[in-house]
Amino acid sequence: MFFQFIHFMKKIFIVLLLFFFSLEFVKGQTSKLGYEVSDSTGVLELVKWERKDSIVDLTKEDNLKQVKAIGNCCFVFNDYIKTVILPEGVEIIKGRAFDTCKNLHHIYLPNSLRIIGQNSFNMCENLRLDSLPPNLKRIEYGAFWDCCRITISKIPNTVTYIGGKAFTLCESIQELVLPDSIIEIKERTFAGCKGLKKIKLPNSLQTIEKYAFARCLSLDEISLPASIQKIGIQAFIGCISLRLVILPPKVEIENNAFDLCKNVVIKEIQK
């Protein structure tokens, strides 16, 4: 029995040895490809990109065409990429996927995209983007933080959530329409959008959280819907061009909501 056990353990050792050798082989293959994909969660995900291409077109290779997710930090700090084309079928761009890709100028976002994750395009200071895909549902915290060249003018009607700081310091946005599915504007969502002149708020909106529109220097007028219940602390602080705020009666306005808006007139209208 003892010798049988030793023989059995030898077999186990050989199997494990072969397994680890195969892992090293796969790792080597991944390195040669210049990227890594994984389906460990049941969804095919691009988890790492190591190539130095300026144009990344995931529609050109059969295995990349099937990708459903762009993984966390997949392209983070990549200074090579200038143009990215994502295939139809991609549903989520995960957190920090393109964080601080300072030379990224253009990205094709497919119609299949549902979620733009936390800080996905954080500090992509040269990114040009004028529209979002029509089936998008969530824009997470800090998604486009300091993307100072994007010029989107409408959030798709399918979007139900916009996270705090999602568009902070997006200085080139001039006009924006929010969908009726939004009930609150989170903290600092549009803070520092210096070029924002007009914004159409949804009839569903109930809360504007603190600093939501802080230092929107070009905003000159805003009309709040009948649904609005609360305006948070310093929500519009430093909006120096703001002249007129139209709102319904009995709105809770917290301390200094319009601080440093020297010439603002707040007009209550029964809606």
Summarize this structure briefly.
With 271 residues, this protein is of the alpha/beta class.
Radius of gyration: 24 Å
What structural class do helix, strand and pairing data support?
alpha/beta
Give average pLDDT, whole number: 90
- The parts where pLDDT drops under 50 for at least 5 residues are 2-8, 14-30
- Total of DSSP H or I helical runs spanning 4+ residues: 2
Residues in β-strands, percent: 15-25%
Strand order of the largest sheet: 1-2-4-6-8-9-10
Helix content: 10-25%
Order of helices and strands, N to C? HEEEHEEEEEEEEEEEEEEEE
Rounded to the nearest angstrom, the distance between the terminal CA atoms is 89 Å
Largest sheet: 7 strands, mixed
User: In one word, what is the shape?
Assistant: elongated
Number of strands: 19
Protein model, in words:
The chain has 271 residues and is α/β, with parallel strands linked by helices. The protein is built from 2 helices and 19 strands. It has helices at residues 2-33, 62-65; strands at 35-38, 45-49, 55-57, 69-70, 83-85, 92-93, 106-108, 115-116, 138-139, 161-162, 175-177, 184-185, 198-200, 207-208, 221-223, 230-231, 244-247, 252-253, 265-268. The N and C termini lie far apart (89 Å).
List the helices and strands and how they pair.
Layout: H1 2-33, E1 35-38, E2 45-49, E3 55-57, H2 62-65, E4 69-70, E5 83-85, E6 92-93, E7 106-108, E8 115-116, E9 138-139, E10 161-162, E11 175-177, E12 184-185, E13 198-200, E14 207-208, E15 221-223, E16 230-231, E17 244-247, E18 252-253, E19 265-268
Parallel strand pairs: 2-4, 3-5, 4-6, 5-7, 6-8, 8-9, 9-10, 11-13, 12-14, 14-16, 15-17, 16-18, 17-19
Antiparallel strand pairs: 1-2
